[in-house]
Specification:
- The chain is of the alpha/beta class.
- About 45% of the residues lie in helices and about 15% in strands.
- It contains four helices and three strands, in the order βαβαβαα.
- The protein has a three-stranded parallel β-sheet.
- Helix 2 links the parallel strand 2 and strand 3.
- It is globular.
Length: about 100
């Protein structure tokens, strides 16, 4: 089972389509990849736009039949995910900071 790495940093609002295009291209280059490990440690001051970016990335991965897992989630992003109910969507409820949030299948 292949895992590909994808890194997300704080980006301006409206950057979601750019990120999804980059992820789609990465997945096209790695057709055997089952899991996308999305490194988010640079998102230290998350905004609603960052949550939108992550949701778009998850949707892109799911549409391609892949699983997106978050890694390196900073405390503020973790709290925002918990407060918005997205922690369960991303599978990162109650996991220690800085650790991958789901073990690849």
């Amino acid at each position: 089972m292949e895992t590909v790495e994808f890194t997300v940093g704080p980006l301006p609002p409206g950057a979601g389509p750019f990120l999804t295009d980059q992820l789609a291209a990465l997945l096209a280059d790695h057709p055997s990849a089952v899991v996308v490990r999305c490194e988010v440690s640079a998102v230290e001051r998350p905004t609603p736009a960052d949550l939108d970016h992550l949701a778009r990335l998850r949707l892109t991965a799911r549409q391609a039949g892949r699983e997106l897992v978050l890694a390196g989630v900073p405390p503020r992003l973790r709290l925002l995910l918990e407060l918005t109910g997205l922690a369960e969507v991303f599978g990162c409820s109650g996991v220690g900071a800085g650790q991958p949030h789901r073990e690849p299948p």
